[in-house]
Amino acid sequence: MIESTVYPILQANYSRIQERIASACERSARLPGAVRLVAVTKYADWDWVLGLIRLGQHDLAENRPQNLMDRAEKISAPISWHLIGHLQSNKAKRILSVAKWIHSVDSLKLLGTIDRFASELPFRPQVLLEVNVTGETTKDGFDPVELESSIDTLLGFRHVQIQGLMTMAMASNIPETSRPAFRNLRELRDNLQSKSGGGLQLNELSMGMTGDFEIAIEEGATMVRIGSALFQGLTSADIPTG
Ligand SMILES: *Cc1c(COP(=O)(O)O)cnc(C)c1O
Question: Is residue 143's pLDDT more than 50?
Answer without folding.
Answer: yes
